[in-house]
Amino acid sequence: MTKVFSLMILSLMAILMLGAMSASTTAIAGKIYNADYSDTIPGANVTVNCNENIQTTMSLSDGAYSVTYDGTVCNQDSLLTVYAVKGSLSGSNTGIIHDNLVEGWNVGIANVSLIPEFGLFLGALTILSALVIFFVVRKK
Asked: What are the two backbone dihedrals, phi and then psi, of residue 2, each rounded to the nearest 5 degrees?
């Protein structure tokens, strides 16, 4: 229920933000969440790529982010990719720009969940632990 409510609030924010823009502007917005979408993550570094045009921003205190593009650079049916990083957490998501979602405005929404990255040492330790457990269980 909170995800639906958050998406509705985010959409309303995007619509209100778009009221000040011309029809040739594309707005991309979303929220940065933890791995299970139970909480938002403020202060994440967010990189948005739309048609090889890259913009960066940071997520706000409620996890929300937004960027705008010229409508000729990032337009209807363009593929967008959003990357987010905060500390050892990272994640990405893709979306498509929708034309005329709100009477002539191009809008893209992409929420991203951040998951912990395994370093080389932790990855090797995980694999080694799995092998040891496999052989211990196999002997019994």
From this structure: -70, -30
Total domains in the fold of the chain:
1
Domain that holds residue 45: 2-139
Task: Evaluate whether 36 touches 89 at the Cβ level (below 8 Å).
Answer: no
- Residue 13: which CATH number? 2.60.40.1120
Structure tokens at 125: 């330790």
Element housing 6 (H / E):
helix 2-18
Q: Is 117 within 8 Å of 85 (Cβ atoms)?
A: no
**In residues, how long is the chain?**
140
pLDDT at position 20 is: 44
Measure the CA–CA gap between 121 and 117, rounded to whole angstroms. Answer: 11
For the question of whether the overall pTM of this predicted structure is more than 0.90, the answer is no
Q: What is the pLDDT of residues 64-106, one digit of tens each?
A: 999 988 877 887 788 889 999 998 888 998 888 877 666 666 7
CB distance 94 to 77 below 8 Å = no
Which residues touch 110 (CB under 8 Å, ≥6 apart)?
A: 28, 30, 80, 81, 82, 93, 94, 95
